[in-house]
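okkk here we go again. third time trying to get the zinc ion bound version out, last two times i messed up the smiles copy paste (missing a bracket lol). double checked this time i swear
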Amino acid sequence: MTTLENLSCPIDSAPLSRYERSLKCEHGHTYDLAKTGYVNLLPVQNKRSKDPGDSKDMVAARQSFLNQDCYFPVVEAILSSWPKKALVDGIRVLDAGCGEGYYLGKIGKILHDQKINIERVGLDISKWAVAAASKRDKSVSWLVGSNASLPVPDERFDVILCLFGFPIFCEFSRALSKSGLLLLVESGPDHLIELRKILYPSIHDYKPTHSDGVANFELLSESSENYSFALNSQVDIQNLLSMTPHIHKASYDGREAVKQLESISLTADIKLRWYQKIEEVNHA
Ligand SMILES: C[S@@+](CC[C@H](N)C(=O)[O-])C[C@H]1O[C@@H](n2cnc3c(N)ncnc32)[C@H](O)[C@@H]1O
Ligand SMILES: [Zn+2]
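finally!!
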């Protein structure tokens, strides 16, 4: 059973209370739970497009790919780099841009097996992603919403995960508790290099993101996870391609060349950075 507790109305930030299969604020705004238990807290006026975020097809491709566990070492790297003081019973974790819920599902299961029970909330702007996630794991609160305006009160979470996503640091800082932690997971310079060499005539130099630091956060640790994996069918290769930005960026010729492949051996190169929220100094 999902809890869907301690959430805020996306229109006026008033607390939401649960009434059977809906959440309501004191001003009468009502959000019905979907059949599978998720709730859509993305009001129409906050949508930039009619169907924001990953499409139904992209979500299906990501789910097929991730279910093969080629990225399971990323789950392990997340857990082994996770600061131990924040790996305790009862911590409140948000996966901001959770996609179809692979990481939050795996993390919850592994920690549960270690007798660590955490509260998990998964949020994504794509209703397709959240709908798929809500079928995967019923013990998570799944929300359609935007990182730009999280439908939660201040200091709601102890940890925010942003995995291959779109961080909005001021909003993450607001939603994190005092000294709360943020994990950013991103591609490193050699990520899927073999595929990129086929897709592009030349490979651009790698530009690290946030190399000058991030406002409101201090960097606690930085690590990389590098390994190889193989894909042995054209369907798997297309599923991977569909979940990367390369599907839109690569040239026609590059994509046609990838269509000829029946197998490929690939490098995964992932960067993990843990940040801690910095408290504002009150000069008053
Ligand atoms: C590259 S996918 C990563 C998904 C998931 N974290 C994973 O690694 O499997 C990026 C996700 O961010 C979502 N997204 C895009 N803009 C967003 C926003 N403003 N707020 C929340 N999610 C967003 C997309 O719908 C998509 O599911
Ligand atoms: Zn309201």
